[in-house]
Each structure stands twice: as C-alpha cells, then as structure tokens.
Amino acid sequence: MKKLIFTLALTFIAHFSFSQTDQFRVDFNLVAFYDRDTENWGEWQEGDNTFVLNFNDNNDIAHYKPDGTVAYYRNLGGLEVGYTKNGDRYQILNALDEDGYKISFQLFDDITIGAKLIWGNFMIQFSYYK
Questions:
Q1: pTM confidence score
Q2: Parallel, antiparallel, or unpaired for β 70-83 and 122-127?
C-alpha cells in the first residue's frame, strides 16, 4: 500500500512539475509589412490574426491567418525579455517556420504595439485596435 501511495504521489508531482507553460492566445486585427527597400513600414491593413502560444509540449506557436490557414512555428528556445527605448516590455523567441527558416517572434505586453514576426530584415507587425 505504501508503494502504491508513493507511486501515485510521484506521478502527481511529475505531472505538475513537467507540464508545459500555460497555453494562451493573442488576437490582432491589424497588420503592417516592413519594406526593406525603402526601410519604412507600410500602412496598417485590416486582417484578423490569432497566435496560440505554448500550444504543445515544445511550447510552439500556432498562427491562425485571415485566409483560414494555420502556420506553425517550432520553438527553438532562447526566450529573452527586453524593453524598447520607450520602456515598452517585450519577449522574443527564436523559432523555425514551416519551411525551416529561422524566425524571431516578438510579443509586446502592450497589445496595441502587438507582435512581430521577423525573418532577417523582413518583418510583419500585428496590432489590436478597437
């Protein structure tokens, strides 16, 4: 009986100790593209995009696009927390896109600043505005 209780206790502890970070989602209704030729951001366009973070055991990201497709970004780790010159807090994570290209996913605490997908010098920014 003691072995059974001990085994159940270890199973319970292991389940909660090794569980993934909590899954959460962020929704955006605006998108803008960075033009590397002009080095300027394009105009904001309407476009509903949803990101589900930590959706599996590897803490990957699922990106639900306006056309109904889903892109998956494989978490490579290296989560960093930083602040912009204006003091806005963000987190940035390295990932692989579906084609195997390394990207960075930057998520700001302020949903109006939103999030960025960064492939080298190509960037897409997502924001939410009511």
A1: 0.80
A2: unpaired
Q: Which residues pair with 123 in a beta bridge?
A: 118
Task: Report angle CA 101, 105, 111 to the nearest 5 degrees.
Answer: 155
Give whole-number Cα distances, 30 to 45, 65, 77, 101, 108, in Å: 5, 12, 27, 24, 15
Question: Among residues 121, 70, 79, which one has the least CA distance to residue 97?
Answer: 70
What are the average pLDDT values for consecutive 10-residue runs of the chain, which has 130 residues? 42 38 93 93 97 96 97 95 97 96 97 95 94
Q: Which residues contact 41 (CB under 8 A, 6 or more apart)?
A: 32, 33, 34, 35, 125
